[in-house]
Design a protein that fits this description.
It is built from 13 helices and 15 strands. It is of the alpha/beta class. It has two domains: about 220 residues, Tubulin/FtsZ, GTPase domain (Rossmann fold, 3-Layer(aba) Sandwich), CATH 3.40.50; about 90 residues, no CATH class. The strands form three sheets. It has a ten-stranded mixed β-sheet with strand order 3-2-1-4-5-6-7-10-8-9, with helices on both faces. Helix 6 packs across helix 12. The longest helix has about 40 residues. Bound molecules: guanosine-5'-diphosphate and magnesium ion. Magnesium ion (MG) binds next to loops.
Amino acid sequence: MLNVLLIGNGQCGNRILDAVNRLSMNRGSSVKEASGGLSKYFSKHKYKSNVETVAINTAINDLKEMKFTKAKDRIHIPNLHGVGANRKYGKEVFEQQKGMIMRLLEERPRPDVAFVITSASGGTGSSFTPPLIEEIKKVHDYPVYAIVILPFREEGTLYLQNAAFMLKELREGPCDGVILVDNQYLKSIGGNYQDAYDGINTMIAKRLLFLLDSLDSEMMMVTDLGDFKTVMSGGAGLATIGYAKAETETPIRNLIQNSVSPSGLLFSTDVYQEASRAMIIIKGDKKYLSIDEISAEVEKLTSAVGHVFKGIIIQNGELPEVLCVLTLSSAEALEGLYEGAVAAINTERTKKDKIRREKEFDSSFLSIDGLEPEYWSRFLSVRSCDIRFRDIRPRNRRHRNGYMVSAGRSSGWTFFSDLLKNVSWSFRT
Ligand SMILES: Nc1nc2c(ncn2[C@@H]2O[C@H](COP(=O)(O)OP(=O)(O)O)[C@@H](O)[C@H]2O)c(=O)[nH]1
Ligand SMILES: [Mg+2]
């Protein structure tokens, strides 16, 4: 029996983890979903793997939002309400809190495999995940995979930049492989954000449970954790998952094709061009599992991809389902995201330059306006006083980007820039 650790980092990671727990507890949103046999993960009698779930967040509200994850499985980083999509700050927080987080993880049974689920683009999950995997790998040699959710492209430049830097860190670090899920690609699932999130989260949860199930099954043709590790070590450290389920009696040939087609994948890729290794697991009643059809399709995939591990699980009376794990040697869609991030970085740089130039203008304005020779003599003459921005009274005149301030009867006027409002100024009047 496998020991599996599932960590959900940040809001997106927490929600997907909660969806996994929901399906596992046989409380899927639809009866059909719930009766998919996934209850074995949590029902006492039908456990297949020992699955531990842990949700980590800096925002207590995100943790409270979870409905199917036990309180003891939620780690709140104290005194914070999120990190505001600020990865630099998030990394500092992780550094301070990593002792506590690692201690709580170490209290659980040693896993055979771990998955860390997170969005690439937010703050907490994006900044915690790479160093968390690094911490785990410092002391353990079990494989740790990241399931990374890419942003909707319209969510803005900050998210794009976060995603690019997060992926870079993950790929340069000791993470054993990144499974990509693209919100943008899966957008059509829901008419609004909430529906899209719920739909995507359920898709991921379902596939993850299918995968875990198949790694721990006594199958007719077995795929195990060793095979999964071999698949994931191929390619450029990137992977995605395809899936298809028959709603009616569908030839297994079509179902395999659907699982690797755009409608089956979690990330946009041309499998026949970009995949480098694959694992395909077919589940269902044996009457649907034609050996000729399966062999022909797997052969087709093998000739394009290289190596394909194949597993078959017989489930009496069930319509067939296919899961496909594909590692990628290249990912054109990711290059598109990187290009977006580079454009965002350049735009930001231009804006920063503009702000810097304006600041320079302000300070030169300040030196002209505040330090006119006429006033210098007064400053030097009487006494020293400390003026802070809050001392500025309404009687002082609002001026472009600041105030003209009079510190006292004999002081004359000087200019206080808005940009310097947090600076305590000391000058003579
Ligand atoms: N698929 C999916 N994406 C989500 C969900 N919640 C947030 N996101 C995406 O995650 C990104 C924001 O990250 P989030 O996880 O909220 O940040 P964090 O809490 O600071 O780690 C955005 O790109 C969102 O579109 C969710 O429930 N499902
Ligand atoms: Mg959020």
